[in-house]
User: What shape does this take?
Amino acid sequence: MRLIDQIYIDGAFVTPHGTELFDLYNPATAQVIGKVRLADAEDARRAIAAAKRAFRSFSGTDKAVRVRMLHRMHESVSAHADELTEAVIEEYGAPMSRAHWMAAHASNVLLDAAKVLESYDFTRRAGIADVVMQPLGVAGLITPWNSDAGFICGKLAAAIAAGCTAVVKPSEMSGIQTQIITRALHEAGLPPGVFNIVTGRGEVVGAEISAHPDVAKISFTGSTVVGRTILRAGAETLKRVTLELGGKSPFVILDDANLAEAVPLAIQAGFMNSGQACIAGTRILVPVGRLKEFEEFAKAAVEQTRAGDPRDPKTDIGPMVSQKQWERVQRYIRIGIDEGAKLLAGGEGRPQGLEAGWFVRPTVFTSVRNDMTIAREEIFGPVLSIITYRNEEEAIAIANDTAYGLQAYVMSSDVSRARSVASRIDAGRVLINTLAHEPLAPFGGFKQSGIGREYGRFGLEAFLEPKSVVGANAA
Ligand code: NAD
Assistant: This one.
């Protein structure tokens, strides 16, 4: 049984002032595998004070110095990739291939930020003014459990590139992964206080960071409900706030799509990260005339989807992260049935042969109407809805009939037609005939999927404030 009893403040591993012990689980067995000692509000204040002290000199560092720091961080996170992969499988339950991708992603985002920083000009001209982009101050970075190291590194990379210092508050459910990533980042040898990592409860440590007057900026990834709480808490001191929240992404199959290609992509997009993905394409919009054909392809694709032991290389879908998440998915499957949707595949309970662990059956509902609960609320598990439409106008209307707007997908054999549909969908990112990720492009949501953008230039500027200096060249 592992005990994680240190947090990271001012360049050192320290025992938290908080004393609560929180159980860590292996979701594939539902067994406790460790305990993490949680930080409290006092720890959060110490971390903020350290970040504030460090900001004075760090904000004035040359960009070349910060590029080198990001490279060192990339190298040390890469060096811990195997250990991190193992922890992702054990503590989060991601299937092996996904876990490898997640570990690589955590180090790659640091390199991506270095690239953006290298080509970024912090001063530009506007008429007779010099516009100087200045780091905001101490950034509070609050992250969820569904890609612990990736979110920590992604947010930290942008903050450091900008010249901000940071206090990171990871999910309390990811203690083992956070410990590995903290050690790796420590080995990169940044000045003390530039980043601090305090694992604690959201309503304690997260709330302290969101309200503290010495925190200038919050970057949060998580649920829409917590995002609203953070925005309200930050309003008191007018913090700059970036929110990456939930989604209910439409996967639009146009009537000319090649289903042999589009259906496997739809199933992959829906079941990615075991369905615990904010960008999952959970509403599949199918032209009514091609429904039967689509259903046949979809049924076959789901039959080939393996839910089970994350260590088995053939597994596509691992367990849900927690008992609470398992129950949530079960509840939504029941609601779907009660509201009259038809099960095309899957259903309630565990997959055959899996008695322990928080495994769910990969589930696809058909005959779903867009006003049903399963089409409106984020389930955060491998549960997809097929919704039919009669014409392109209706497809676009259904795609946009949601409180969310994080991502959308359009499948068509006519790319210009797909582009025109994409231009009318309200989402921060639209993927046409692909599931590709572009790390230099901005990422974030329209509507209740969030505020602001991460990654690339936009992500860097989310940690900067423009200052206009007029008259410098007057003489
Ligand atoms: P969550 O909102 O419950 O928690 C996210 C983080 O916020 C955790 O670290 C948590 O401890 C903290 N938190 C909780 N209450 C807080 C408070 N009052 N003040 C400050 N911090 C608080 O989300 P989760 O259950 O960890 O993650 C799942 C959710 O995250 C899903 O809804 C999903 O859509 C969303 N998500 C979004 C993205 C994206 O990029 N848009 C990516 C991944 C996950």
DSSP finds 15 helices and 21 strands in the chain. Residues 142-146, 169, 171-172, 202-203, 206-207, 210, 221-223, 226, 229-230, 244-246, 278, 378, 380, 406, 450 surround nicotinamide-adenine-dinucleotide (CB under 6 Å). The longest helix spans residues 96-118. The two ends are 69 Å apart (CA to CA).
